[in-house]
């Protein structure tokens, strides 16, 4: 057990984060999992320990910057892999959404990622190696009406990851951005997005386990980024050839409430 490597995973109790934790456990990594809910942490830890690895749980709300900083101080075990998975969104028009909730999204998706990456990359650099996986999204390449702030935070994650990868290319540390599309997780429920077209098209949603496998394999191979799913890859490449205004309009149509579309159709 003493020779095993350790992976720190934020948002490790559900969705893609939990599926990634399972993959690390299968490969005999000891785990530190972080989430807000201690009960969910305990349940997930019990499941992961069945693989015979050590699991430490830490309950923190990483949308609170002070808690994110305290987390860094509390972890004394050398971290070989950092997975910045924790993230959230909110659904609705920007002018109507609650400001504090949107600031919380920025704090969690951007600031917590920067705080944890800053802390652990310095430790990894001293040891001459390590791996960091940042959860981006295809949203980071697509202006996103109805989720304007969320999409913008994921654009930051992609730019940030690419930049520090170049800065530290000779350090022995690899940086990988995982870019899933719409995935069957609790994200849509927590974001209040269940009425959107994209959330109701269940057949179009990717499986979280499949996304995690693509991200895990890319991380272990030291790749700079991976777009999970060929359809998402096509969408991103197509968007690169279109004006941002056209991409934004397309996303508006994809993400608008189903009820609004039905009203528009009945009016035609």
From TrEMBL:
GO terms for molecular function: oxidoreductase activity. InterPro entries: NAD(P)-bd_dom_sf, SDR_fam. Pfam families: adh_short. SUPFAM superfamilies: NAD(P)-binding Rossmann-fold domains (SSF51735). The keyword Oxidoreductase applies. It comes from Mucilaginibacter ginsenosidivorax. This is SDR family oxidoreductase. GO terms for cellular component: membrane. Gene3D superfamilies: NAD(P)-binding Rossmann-like Domain (3.40.50.720). Keywords: Oxidoreductase. PANTHER family: DEHYDROGENASE/REDUCTASE SDR FAMILY MEMBER 7B, SHORT-CHAIN DEHYDROGENASE-RELATED. Belongs to the short-chain dehydrogenases/reductases (SDR) family.
């Amino acid at each position: 057990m003493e020779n095993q490597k350790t992976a720190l995973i934020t948002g490790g109790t559900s969705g893609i984060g939990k599926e990634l934790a399972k993959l690390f456990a299968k490969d005999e990594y000891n785990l530190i999992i972080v989430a807000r809910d201690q009960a969910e942490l305990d349940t997930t830890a019990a499941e992961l320990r069945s693989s015979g690895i050590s699991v430490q749980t830490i309950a923190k709300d990483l949308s609170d910057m002070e808690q994110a900083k305290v987390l860094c101080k509390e972890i004394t075990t050398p971290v070989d892999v950092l997975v910045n998975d924790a993230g959230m969104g909110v659904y609705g028009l920007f002018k109507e959404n609650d400001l504090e909730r949107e600031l919380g999204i920025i704090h969690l998706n951007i600031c917590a990622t920067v705080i944890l990456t800053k802390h652990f990359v310095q430790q990894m650099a001293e040891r001459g190696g390590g791996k960091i996986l940042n959860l981006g999204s295809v949203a980071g390449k697509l202006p996103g009406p109805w989720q304007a702030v969320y999409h913008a935070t994921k654009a930051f994650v992609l730019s940030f990851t690419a930049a520090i990868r170049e800065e530290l290319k000779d350090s022995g540390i690899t940086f990988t951005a995982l870019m899933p599309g719409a995935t069957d997780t609790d994200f849509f429920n927590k974001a209040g997005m269940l009425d959107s077209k994209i959330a109701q098209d269940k057949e179009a949603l990717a499986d979280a386990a499949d996304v995690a496998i693509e991200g895990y394999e890319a991380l272990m191979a030291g790749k700079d980024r991976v777009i999970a799913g060929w359809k998402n890859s096509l969408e991103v490449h197509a968007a690169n050839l279109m004006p941002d205004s056209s991409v934004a309009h397309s996303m508006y149509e994809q993400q608008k409430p189903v009820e609004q579309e039905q009203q528009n159709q009945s009016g035609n």
